[in-house]
Design a protein that fits this description.
The chain is mainly α and 229 residues long. The chain has 9 helices and no strands.
Length: 229
């Protein structure tokens, strides 16, 4: 059971990690920043323009201050590119930042990201119910639920409403499995009760002098047991 619980945790963590990292990366790259009013991708594209303002470099991380010479020097055979003419090494491609192909509008970003998030949550919910179906203990189920909720609470990259949605998915899947566990326990209890009752009746009837007059009083009890599930 310990190994199985570990496998479930690893699978859940892998899925949630993909969702949180993807959502965080999309917002980091394409969402407008409060400091500059521009997205990170827009700032990078502006920086590689022939008319780029050197002051714009201050808003970019060092690893994103790209240039043709920097890209050439990072290649495996960079020493060969040192012989290229200066015009090539200093080349800056032109990108039309007013074009729709190089611009992601905030409304489009929100719509696309929400659509992807909802689809991912649907697939995660289905997988989670399948993983939880392998857990047959109440204690193990609650441990998994608490662990997942703690993971989500500490995760970065998701909005509060997105975390709340994932919490509901976890709670619904947990509730479904807990119901299944209780149902199975009651079914086993019912079966055990009927078997014990049947055995008791048979033993009573085999006793010397047994008339069987008490058997009808047993039948209502067995009928009541049918309503347990």
């Amino acid at each position: 059971m310990h190994a199985e619980r570990k496998d479930i945790r690893q699978s859940v963590e892998a899925c949630l990690d993909i969702v949180t990292r993807t959502a965080s990366a999309v917002r980091t790259i394409f969402q407008e920043r409060e400091t500059t009013g521009k997205s990170l991708i827009t700032s990078v594209l502006e920086n590689i323009q022939p008319t780029a303002d050197p002051a714009g470099l201050d808003s970019l991380p060092h690893e994103l201050r790209l240039s043709t010479q920097l890209l050439l020097s990072s290649l495996p055979s960079s020493t060969h590119f040192l012989l290229l003419p200066r015009t090539i090494k200093s080349y800056k491609p032109y990108v039309d930042l007013t074009s729709t192909s190089s611009t992601v509008f905030p409304s489009v970003l929100t719509e696309r990201l929400q659509g992807w998030f909802q689809k991912s949550c649907t697939e995660f919910s289905q997988a989670l119910r399948n993983w939880f179906s392998k857990v047959d203990g109440m204690k193990e189920m609650w441990k998994l639920r608490n662990w997942i909720r703690k993971w989500l609470f500490e995760a970065d990259g998701l909005l509060d409403e997105e975390k709340a949605h994932l919490h509901r998915i976890v709670d619904d899947a947990c509730r479904q499995q807990l119901t299944s566990i209780w149902t199975a326990a009651l079914r086993n209890a019912k079966s055990g009760f009927e078997n014990e009752l049947k055995t008791a009746v048979e033993v009573t009837l085999r006793r010397p002098g047994a008339s069987g007059q008490g058997i009808p009083t047993v039948l209502p009890i067995m009928m009541i047991s049918e309503t347990w599930l």
